[in-house]
């Protein structure tokens, strides 16, 4: 039974909403940073961590891919959370008084159209719900927060726009992470394997890695590259494929990957979300 789940942000954050949807009975543990969120799960103080990985409107969440290579956690699930940005103001304020808007940088990017239209000064907050909490507790009357309906309820703020985002189809994908990996698979279900790798510094190494997936009929659904090191000469790749290591063709493709790569880090195997089949 899952009892405690850590997340980055304050009560009312979209990560909090994600936890309520997936593990309605679990205790949610807010954290100030993603590092702390992961650390609580690594040390066993919580059972799981709920980590946002990417958003349909603003792309990957800054900082997460930098933390994944260092983390000892395993991805055991994915969740797609609908994000509905609301514009919130203090109960004693009025829309005519609003000159500024504050939220997490991702939320600000996802609401850029209306922010520009209203010519609001932009303030960057640590998270969406924390921005709402600050307006409530500090009695700020000239600034609005972009946050969830749940945040408005928790911090007693007025909703003056319940559709503030650029797009109504705004989805954040979360990773559910655990100390223990998922090692058992139901052959009736579909899985995704996620991993990081660095290719050897030889001609054609990446081509040979990609060829291993193609020749073994393994579908790659995501590939992203990152440069790191002082000279930015080392390239690391984040990859997701359909399948799990117990399947024959997936195992052959992963054998090729290990042969041609200087480093491979398995991040986890998880069931493909039913959300994907509805798209």
Describe the structure concisely for a colleague.
Helix content is 28%, strand content 34%.
Written account of the structure:
The protein has 279 residues and is of the alpha/beta class. It folds into three domains: 4-83 and 171-178, D-Maltodextrin-Binding Protein, domain 2 (3-Layer(aba) Sandwich); 86-161, D-Maltodextrin-Binding Protein, domain 2; 191-277, Alpha-Beta Plaits (2-Layer Sandwich), CATH 3.30.70. 28% of the residues lie in helices and 34% in strands. It is built from ten helices and 15 strands. It has helices at 14-22, 34-42, 64-67, 105-110, 112-118, 128-137, 149-154, 205-215, 248-260, 274-277; strands spanning 4-8, 27-31, 48-55, 59-60, 74-82, 86-89, 100-103, 121-124, 143-147, 158-161, 171-178, 191-199, 220-228, 234-242, 261-271. Strands 1, 2, 3, 4, 5 and 11 form a six-stranded mixed sheet that branches. Helix 8 (205-215) packs antiparallel against helix 9. The longest helix is centred in the last third of the chain and has 13 residues, at 248-260.
CATH class of the largest domain: Alpha Beta
Main sheet properties: 6 strands, mixed
The number of domains: 3
Instruction: Quickly count the helices.
Output: 10
CATH third-level topology of the largest domain? D-Maltodextrin-Binding Protein, domain 2
- Cα-based radius of gyration, to the nearest Å: 21 Å
Derived from helix and strand composition plus strand pairing, the structural class reads alpha/beta
How many strand units? 15
Determine the N-to-C terminus distance.
Answer: 31 Å
Global morphology: elongated
Low-confidence stretches: none
Work out the strand percent. Answer: 25-35%
Q: Quick check: average pLDDT?
A: 92
User: How much helix, percentage-wise, in residues?
Assistant: 25-40%
Q: Give the ordered list of helices and strands.
A: EHEHEEHEEEHHEHEHEEEHEEHEH
**What is the assigned CATH homologous superfamily of the largest domain?**
Periplasmic binding protein-like II
| Reported CATH architecture of the largest domain | 3-Layer(aba) Sandwich
């Amino acid at each position: 039974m899952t009892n405690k789940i850590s997340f980055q942000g304050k009560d009312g954050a979209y990560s909090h909403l994600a936890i309520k949807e997936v593990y309605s009975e679990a205790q949610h543990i807010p954290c100030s940073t993603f590092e702390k969120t992961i650390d609580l799960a690594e040390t066993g103080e919580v059972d799981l961590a709920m980590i946002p990985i990417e958003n349909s409107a603003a792309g990957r969440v800054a900082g997460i891919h930098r933390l994944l290579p260092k983390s000892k956690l395993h991805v055991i699930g994915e969740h797609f959370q609908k994000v509905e940005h609301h514009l919130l103001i203090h109960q004693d304020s009025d829309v005519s008084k609003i000159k500024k808007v504050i939220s997490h940088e991702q939320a600000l990017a996802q609401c850029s159209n209306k922010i520009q239209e209203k010519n609001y000064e932009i303030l960057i907050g640590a998270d969406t719900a924390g921005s709402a909490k600050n307006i409530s507790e500090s009695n700020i009357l000239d600034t609005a927060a972009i946050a969830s309906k749940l945040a408005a309820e928790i911090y007693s703020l007025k909703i003056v726009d319940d559709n503030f985002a650029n797009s109504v189809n705004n989805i954040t994908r979360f990773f559910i992470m655990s100390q223990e990996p998922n090692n058992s698979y139901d052959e009736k279900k579909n899985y995704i394997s996620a991993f990081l790798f660095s290719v050897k510094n030889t001609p054609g190494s990446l081509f040979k890695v990609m060829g291993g997936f193609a020749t073994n009929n393994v579908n790659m659904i995501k590939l992203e590259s990152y440069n790191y090191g002082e000279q930015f000469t080392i390239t690391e790749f984040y990859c997701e494929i359909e399948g799990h290591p117990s399947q024959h063709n997936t195992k052959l493709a992963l054998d090729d990957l290990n042969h041609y790569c200087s480093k491979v880090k398995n991040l986890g195997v998880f069931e493909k979300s039913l959300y994907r089949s509805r798209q």
